Amino acid sequence: MNNPSSKQSPAVRWVVMGVSGCGKSSIGQGLADALGCRYLEGDSFHPAANVAKMSAGIPLTDADRSDWLLRLQGEIATAQAKGESLVLSCSALKRRYRDLLRSGDPALRFAHLAGPREIIAARMAARVDHYMPPSLLDSQLRDLEPLQDDEAGVLLNLADTPEQLVATIVRSMKPSASLSA
Question: What is the pLDDT of residue 7?
């Protein structure tokens, strides 16, 4: 956490977003390592009732996600108030979810991992010990609202290597960089 490069640049908060199975956790951890900051796995903030619902193959509703998103917003707001960088993984499927998270830090950035359904489904099927069944992928894809032009962030192709994805996110932070890749 005492990465010299993080002391030279202002603190930044990132949400690595996308549907289940797109690689949010590994890219989030890789980005946090690259930035020398704390990483939070958004799934670990879900209440037991949400995990039970998803484990049973039942999609979450907006009401189910409400308290979870508020907890994540609180983590973002705390990091912003302390002037700390933070990377958080969170599906952030809908614009209103991202707006809620952004209310904890207006400068919050999003790294949207996107790609073909077939690749994501294969990744989900290969996972072990994860509560999210592949049967919920289509409901997540239906709910997904991609980043809009007025949202600070970068759209990434999940077919790229983790190293390429993290490097693209870091490059997007440079003042001359475009907000989408």
Answer: 43
